[in-house]
Design brief:
The protein is of the alpha/beta class and 740 residues long.
């Protein structure tokens, strides 16, 4: 993946936006269990009373609470409340909420910050519990001895007596009350105190049902808002990830195609056509899928995982080992799957290449297959490649299918373990029910984050293989490159082609296929190259447009070595007709304009007339707009060759190369075409590769090849006298009368 990292540059802004949205989505998801915990703990169990810092207190309750607070803290609490006397604006504003407020006034909580609330809440909670305990004792004066106090006569005011005690004794009494609540954790102490605050609210006339409903609606509304925000973030991240992945894959395909366009034949020999197609389509698609999943999961999973751990520990740190155990089991599972599946993922792309290769060969060679009745052989060949790929994929799927059941088993086991341990802590008043439920949800979020990462660990190996295959193409340096400081043709370009002691060897070959080739093709002349099959004819003309570079010697065009020229400038001077005619899907006109986009209809018709193709084009109702199927499958071989020749003529270059381009033409059409060519290309350099003596008889220069060497150069008459190889070719094709 890192070899392709530069292609993410244009999308860095979108990726950062996705990360920000994922951070927001993760925080929304992490907040939901906490709000659910508050609904259970506060909304249901505490009746909507939040914490142990009441919003309002009667003067009597405030006075009694001071008995259980030291002087400093009592003064601090008193400062946090404002006494609203009857008739005051504050008292009138609160009278509707507290209709049973006492006549002596009401203490209303001022606006205090979270830090102040956190500082006084634990002490207030204990004070409320102490007050509740004393109130129960006050109902039975003889029970005062339980606190180490003497028995009081009936009718005695216990709180009045407590006020008369010295501060040291009251502090000792408070410590004794604290010991009774020491077994409760901080959250349980606050929850117990909330019940006493609720009783205080009821005494002030507050509507209990309205209080609880208002809290539930407020927290439920927050949960709904967070859910909507999380959903919006999820949709936006999905859109961004899809856009980034689609753009990234588009850029990759463009880069691969552009790179392949610059390949010489040497690189095409290294990468097969089937492999390049697989890399451009299948491998890029694998990358696109992984990029979508990567943005949506890899950035989200760590946030939700780390955040879940922090929030779960805040709820109850004693059960950390449950999460650690589950994470350890899942990590071992992921490592095992990764270890087993990785080699198979690496093999998958090679098997896909093989299947594409067999399919392409079978489809392109279907006529040959039918001609030799080899359908069963090809079916078996395809079936073998197909079964190899299928077997490999089935193995990977069998390994991966283990993931989900084991993950569900672990997640369900963790849920049961948390409920079992948490229920004991709830029974011991060490944990609240809502906190246990929230802890369980956080544990599930942590495990789901590991599941997301495990899915990425499964997908990344295959994506890594695809990325390396794409990078191999992109990082391949073409063997034929433009020079750093290219030379240019002068304004008086003529088109002379000169071979100076040229030798050539195909990449990876042990021997040269051309040895010491030297000849000159001049403007206004036709130079024909003839020889037996495999003598090197096509190799020679392939060097002129720099499909390959010479191994030794020099090839000059107008006196300039072709290696010193830009490829585009060199090829702009050449009209090339390959040995295998190639047409593109479209129309006859679009194929002819491939050489010159702005060519006029008259120029196209003239080229068709010279190429002896005007008659069959005119016979079609659509004319130049007649459709051409892929590869020219809807025209004959001779028509395809003539259209290829016409395409080169539309360009009107100073150099023409015809690489055995007349082989599919009958002798009459061949003769007519050569005569028309002679009239049309009188001032151009024409190089013809052929095996027909009749095609080259009128050539000003004939180069005879044999096993990669020139064995004769001259006219037909001269070669008949001086070159045995040419004479053998000629007498094998023509009669004595035809040779005269």
């Amino acid at each position: 993946m890192k070899r392709l990292i530069r292609y993410f540059g244009p999308y860095l802004g979108l990726i950062l936006a996705a990360i920000a949205l994922l951070y927001g989505q993760a925080n929304c998801d992490l907040a939901l269990p906490d709000y659910m915990s508050r609904i259970v703990n506060v909304g249901i169990q505490q009746g909507g009373v939040e914490g142990a810092v009441p919003e309002a207190l009667s003067p009597a309750t405030m006075d009694r609470l001071g008995l259980f607070l030291d002087e400093t803290l009592a003064a601090r609490v008193a400062a946090d409340y404002e006494l609203a006397l009857p008739g005051s604006e504050l008292y009138k504003a609160k009278a509707g909420r507290y209709p049973a407020a006492p006549a002596e006034g009401l203490y209303i909580l001022r606006k205090i910050d979270k830090a102040e609330r956190a500082a006084i809440e634990p002490s207030l909670a204990k004070a409320f519990l102490g007050l509740a305990a004393i109130e129960k004792l006050a109902a039975d004066p003889r029970a005062a001895t339980a606190l180490g106090m003497p028995s009081l006569p009936e009718g005695s005011d216990l709180f009045a007596l407590l006020k008369q005690l010295p501060p040291a004794q009251r502090q000792a009494l408070g410590a004794r009350m604290d010991s009774r609540t020491a077994s409760l954790g901080p959250s349980m102490t606050i929850q117990a105190a909330a019940q006493e605050i609720k009783a205080e609210y009821l005494a002030l006339g507050i509507d209990e049902g309205a209080l609880q409903t208002a809290y539930m609606l407020r927290i439920g509304g927050m949960m709904l808002l967070l859910t909507l925000l999380g959903a919006v973030a999820t949709v936006l991240v999905g859109l961004i990830s899809a856009r980034v992945a689609a753009g990234f894959s588009r850029d990759l395909r463009t880069a691969v195609f552009t790179k392949v366009e610059g390949f010489s034949q040497r690189e095409f020999d290294t990468f097969s056509t089937a492999s390049l197609i697989t890399r451009t389509n299948n491998d890029v698609m694998q990358m696109q899928m992984v990029v979508v999943m990567f943005i949506r999961m890899v950035f989200y999973a760590p946030i939700i995982g780390i955040g879940g751990v922090i929030r779960a520990m805040a709820k109850d740190s004693s059960m950390w080992w449950v999460i650690a155990l589950a994470v350890g089991i899942i990590s071992l599972l992921i490592f095992g799957v990764f270890k087993v599946a990785l080699p198979r993922f690496r093999l998958m792309q090679k098997l896909t290449d093989r299947l594409n290769l067999v399919s392409r060969e079978s489809l392109s060679g279907m006529m040959v297959i039918r001609a030799f009745n080899m359908q069963e052989h090809e079916e078996a060949r395809f079936d073998g490649a197909n079964k190899d790929l299928t077997g490999n994929m089935l193995f990977i799927n069998r390994v991966m299918v283990v993931m989900m059941p084991v993950m569900m088993l672990v997640m369900n086991g963790v849920s049961l373990l948390i409920i079992w341990i948490g229920s004991h802590q709830v029974a011991q008043s060490a944990m609240q029910v809502g906190d246990m439920m929230a802890f369980m949800q956080y544990a599930m979020q942590i495990l789901v984050s590991f599941l997301m990462l495990s899915m990425m660990f499964i997908m990344l190996p295959r994506a890594e293989v695809s990325a390396n295959r794409i990078a191999d193409v992109l990082e391949t340096k073409p063997s034929v490159v433009d020079p750093a400081e290219p030379r240019n043709f002068g304004p008086d370009f003529k088109g002379t082609v000169e071979f100076r002691d040229v030798s050539f060897r195909y990449p990876g070959a042990e021997e040269d296929v051309l040895h010491g080739i030297s000849f000159t093709a001049r403007p206004g002349e036709t130079t024909a190259i003839i020889g037996a099959t495999g003598s090197g004819k096509s190799s020679i003309v392939g060097l002129i447009p720099r499909f390959y570079d010479v191994t030794a010697g020099a090839l000059l065009v107008d006196g300039i070595d072709v290696r010193e020229l830009r490829q585009a400038e060199l090829r702009d001077r050449i009209g090339y007709v390959p040995q295998k005619a190639s047409l593109f899907s479209g129309t006859i006109g679009s194929n002819l304009r491939y050489a010159e986009e702005g060519a006029s209809p008259e120029a196209l018709e003239g080229a068709l007339r010279i190429a002896q193709a005007a008659e069959f084009v005119a016979s079609k109702p659509e004319g130049l707009e007649a459709p051409i199927s892929q590869g020219g499958a809807n025209v004959s071989g001779g028509q395809k060759q003539r259209l290829s020749i016409a395409r080169a003529l539309v360009k009107r270059p100073p150099i023409y190369i015809f690489d055995d381009s007349f082989s599919a033409l009958d002798f009459k059409t061949d003769a007519a075409l050569r005569q028309a060519l002679k009239d049309e290309t009188g001032g151009s350099t024409v190089i013809i590769v052929t095996q027909r003596v009749s095609t080259v008889r009128a050539a000003e220069q004939i180069v005879v090849l044999d096993e990669g060497q020139i064995v004769g150069i001259g006219t037909h008459e001269r070669l008949m006298e001086s070159c045995e190889t040419y004479r053998e070719i000629a007498t094998s094709q023509l009669s004595e009368e035809e040779l005269r």
